Amino acid sequence: MTEFDLVIRNGHVATSDSEFDGDIGITDGKIAAMGEGLGEGAGEIDAAGRLVMPGGVDSHCHVEQISSNGVWTADDWFTATRSAACGGTTTIIPFACQHRGQSLRDVVRSYHDLAGPKAVIDYAFHLIVSDPTAQVLGQELPALIKDGYTSFKIYLTYDALMLTDRQFLDVLAVARRDGAMVMVHAENNDMIAWMAERLLQAGLRAPKFHAVARPMLVEREATHRSIALAELVDVPILIVHVSGAEAIEQIRWARDRGLKVYGETCPQYLFLTEDDLDRPGREGAKHMCSPPPRDAANQDIVWKALQDGVFEVVSSDHAPYRFDDPEGKFKAGPDAHFKQIANGVPGLEVRLPLLYSEGVRKGRLSLKQFIALTATNAAKLYGLYPRKGDIAVGSDADIAIWDTERKVTISQSLLHDNMDYTPYEGIDVTGWPITTLSRGRVVWRDGVFDAKPGSGVFYRCDTPPALDAPPRPVTAFDPVEGRLRP
Ligand code: DUC
Ligand code: ZN
Ligand code: ZN
To answer: Is 101 exposed, middle or buried (0-12, 13-18, 19+ CB in 10 A)?
Structure first.
């Protein structure tokens, strides 16, 4: 008679708050016991000499989503989740994206129809709110929050998606009243449009001008404005894909004021620079994303902010558009200018190895920081903890087993997404997840992926704990309650 369904034996186990040498017992997809010398499992994995960590939670990625320019991401729910699993990630939180005129409820339904039959690891959804009508604010959002969609992203740029400041305030008010986390794409739309118009008039069309049209102060301004709007409403926010010093300064400043302002950064701001957008021919397009990668000095500042705790999460912002494909980056034509090229880079599978190698192995981050930034904090921020994001008794057995000495030169040929390039091609890393378990199922082992489409399941998110913070009102009148404060 065996005691567990599966035992991971003799690994070096790292959880969110401790490390030990020993075993993990798994039953019914959950962690049933942890310690030394556990009883037998019906299955056993020998993890001697391996590092056993929580599977990653990638809380910012775009899957089977159509961009505002009408381009579909290259990955569907099967290839995206396969790629995530092969890179040690066991939960993703992509977006159900509302385009103007759409009911959010219908949008959510249609994303479930895409995800359900294909996902191979577990997932939740953020909502993208681009059309906050009275119906959306008054009925759909409150009902969806109750149903487990407790975070939404809003854009301050892109004509087709962006909200005015007033609409943003309306969304923040719903978030405070009903309990949701608002994620902000913080770039000033008019500054970008004004610069882009002049660049194009001057005949400057190449990918590198994408970065010229969106200098750091564009992000700084919108970050500061977002913080001020959230302060007025008295609700937490999270600034996504922070690219460098000036936005970091704003987040630091807000935190020093005691505001609940969280930050996310991504591998593109740690490993790419604006020079990558200036590669020969059209190659620069492979590195285009928004905000754009900055310079080496900004990269150092992003690393420093990771060490200092300014950032809560490192997400991939996987936004995959193929390079050599008429439906990809150049859907607008081979001569498309920088405003017409689809915007985004892939990164689901390499997020963890890149950060482990350059962060933990090079002594910039502790293992504890790595686990927090790549798994635990995201699960906590978005209401999935302790089901996801940690190795603990009672948590889902979402686990990545790493060969920390494995040397890999990143190449698209090794990856499992549906892309035809990776912007990280040729980067050498040490350390790679060799086995991934999703709720106790081995989905990736020794170079073999094995999971059935549809075996991943949807998770409803709880109210983000940050919403429980004590009030910090800045006006005598409470704009959410609609009355003077006592
Ligand atoms: N914002 C994202 O979050 N992802 C891709 C492109 C963008 O502008
Ligand atoms: Zn964005
Ligand atoms: Zn994104």
So the answer is: exposed
- The residue behind tokens 């995201």 is 378
Residues facing 441 on adjacent strands: 438
Sorted by where each starts, the structural domains of the chain and their CATH numbers stand as 55-385+461-468 (3.20.20.140)
Q: Cα-atom radius of gyration of the chain, to the nearest Å?
A: 22
Q: What is the pLDDT of residue 67?
A: 82
Separation of CA 140 and ligand 3 centre (Å): 23
Binding site membership of 219 for ligand 1 (Cβ less than 6 Å): no
Reply yes or no: is the peptide bond before residue 386 cis, omega within 30 of 0. yes
Count CA within 13 A, CB hemisphere, residue 187: 25
pLDDT tens by residue, 393-435: 999 999 999 999 999 999 999 999 999 999 999 999 999 999 9
| Residue minimizing CA distance to atom 3 of ligand 1 | 317
Query: Is 241's C-beta closer than 6 angstroms to any atom of ligand 1?
Result: yes
pTM of the model: 0.98
pLDDT grade for 389, boundaries at 50, 70 and 90: very high
Handedness of CA 126, 128, 129, 131 (dihedral sign): negative
pLDDT score for 356 = 99
Tens digits of residue pLDDT in 297-327: 999 999 999 999 999 999 999 999 999 999 9
Q: For the residues of 298-313, what is the DSSP string, one character each? A: HHHHHHHHHHHT--SE
On the CB side of 210, CA atoms within 13 Å amount to 30
Best mutation site among 128, 185, 265, 338 for ligand 1 pocket (most ligand atoms within 8 Å of CB): 185
User: Would you state the pLDDT for residue 68?
Assistant: 75
